[in-house]
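Predict structure. Chain length: 344.
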Amino acid sequence: MGNSFICRTKKDTKDNGSRSKRMGRSQRKMLAEEELLHRQALSMALHQHQLSQRFDGSMSRRIGSTSSRRHSDPLANNEKKVLESLENIKFKKIILIHGEGFGAWCWYKTIAQLEEVGLLPTALDLTGSGIDLTDTNTVTTLAEYSKPLIQYLENLPKDEKVILVGHSSGGACLSYALEHFPEKISKAIFLCATMVSNGQRPFDVFAEELGSAERFMQESQFLIHGNGKDKPPTGFMFEKQLMKGLYFNQSPTKDVALAMVSMRPTPLGPIMEKLSLSTEKYGIGRRFYIQTLDDRALSPDVQEKLVRENPPEGVFKIKGSDHCPFFSKPQSLHKILIEIVQIP
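Prediction complete.
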């Protein structure tokens, strides 16, 4: 909100009356646009299972409806080149995997932007996340947690591949998929994510912020004991104020509000599981990493350490982004994803 306020005050004119009228119109327009985005996000959260069909069906209409506007846009030539380049891309399906506590709903801006350029995005709810009705307390392994992604890959036609994008702890699901279905994954993009090495747990990546796994299991006030206090914890969820500080320090207020009513507990078992990754399968995958440079949940130093210890094919950076660039820097994220898609 601070940036919006600064932008408006820069437009002050000599006539305070006309200024207030323009500001009134501008504010109403901005609120209307934000309200529209908010309704779209809520609709997506409620109807995620219809995403694939709806997007596939509306693809040509949306691209066609924007073509007339591009002629008058000074950036039309660049957009045309991007569209022409993407038309020749063989694998256009992009599977978006959310991080801990999130759901498919968090990708609503990214989906719309990728669809606009002719790509085929699909966001999945991991088991016990988003609108998936599974009790998170019953999800104990990474295989269970990743089941929607695994089922999607299993059902892909033999000659098809997809591009995976995994956010935060969803990166572990990407690694798991690379190990089990390397032939079905064109590229794997880790978005400020847990790109672990062989034998590492996803939780280990967050140790700098949360302490060791052992200490967290014993002392954390955010643990959930779904099977009773005398039994091992089954999940965790941060309280709202801490969540806002860790994840959303640069995100728009509307998106933070959406997250506060949509986030769910995270099953503990999957992020405490050590991954077994081989050079023959995981090692042949094409991995890319996107760093977020104003991230308080997974600091830039930790992200730098991840790419240093487990080097991907390419590294990209988003300045001014918190842990949720799909909210705080959607345009930057969109451009980087398109750039990676076009890498031969």
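Summary: Residues 1-23, 45-71 have pLDDT under 50 and may be disordered.
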